[in-house]
Amino acid sequence: MLSLPAVRRSWTAPRPSSAPLPSTPTRSTPDPTSRRTGAAALAAGLAGAASGWLDRVEYRPAGRWTSLLPAADAAALLDPSLHRELAAAQVWLLSWLPGQGTPLHDHGSSAGAFAVVRGALTESVLQTGRQGPARQVPAQLTAGRIRHFGSHYVHQVTNGTDEAAVSVHVYTPALEWMNTYRLADGLLVRTGTERAGVDW
Ligand SMILES: [Fe+2]
């Protein structure tokens, strides 16, 4: 992770929402809503086809395990009606041992979605009101739950249970960078930036 000077900034994060599944393909340059619902459809499809990829998952006590699922492998598991969404997306498989988690982070300019496939994760979403400090609002996501989000969404994900968890994450377009943050006195303070090809 790069060491960048902390930047104080105000932030309004979109609220999480459930995952309606689109019935029609997105355009070649989808709007933000189509991107996030397309990602949700892919996450749901890949969660439903988890038997086709769960044997790839590894568990690493030293740190969270993450692995890119090749597009061809994802396509083979998905209904062809989702292949157009998949062409603009990137799929990651993650495992979370008890206590493992992320810092507070965004996803650069990518929209995305993730589905919990095994175990349970706690997602703490950054929320701000028009007045008052920013705060993290936690929710437990059990297997079968899906979150989808637009760009600028800030959250922290952890496994606070005693059992390992597995999730599948979809980003549209592919994840290029992520900023990490901490909350200080109700303000969001950037603590670093991780970039594709450099940090993962
Ligand atoms: Fe995330």
Structure report:
A hairpin with a 2-residue loop joins β11 and β12. The relative contact order is 0.26. The protein contains three helices and twelve strands, in the order βαβααββββββββββ. The chain has one domain: Jelly Rolls. Strands 2-3-10-5-8 form a five-stranded antiparallel β-sheet. It is mainly beta. It has helices spanning 32-48, 71-77, 83-87, and strands at 7-9, 65-69, 90-96, 104-105, 111-118, 120-127, 135-142, 146-149, 155-158, 165-172, 177-184, 187-195. The structure holds fe (ii) ion. The site of fe (ii) ion (FE2) has 3 residues, from loops.
Report Rg: 16 Å
CATH topology, by name, is Jelly Rolls
**What is the general shape?**
globular
> Residue share in helices?
10-25%
Topology:
Elements: E1 7-9, H1 32-48, E2 65-69, H2 71-77, H3 83-87, E3 90-96, E4 104-105, E5 111-118, E6 120-127, E7 135-142, E8 146-149, E9 155-158, E10 165-172, E11 177-184, E12 187-195
Please give a handful of descriptors for the protein shown.
single chain, 200 residues, mainly beta, Jelly Rolls, five-stranded antiparallel beta sheet, four-stranded antiparallel beta sheet, 3 helices, globular, binds fe (ii) ion
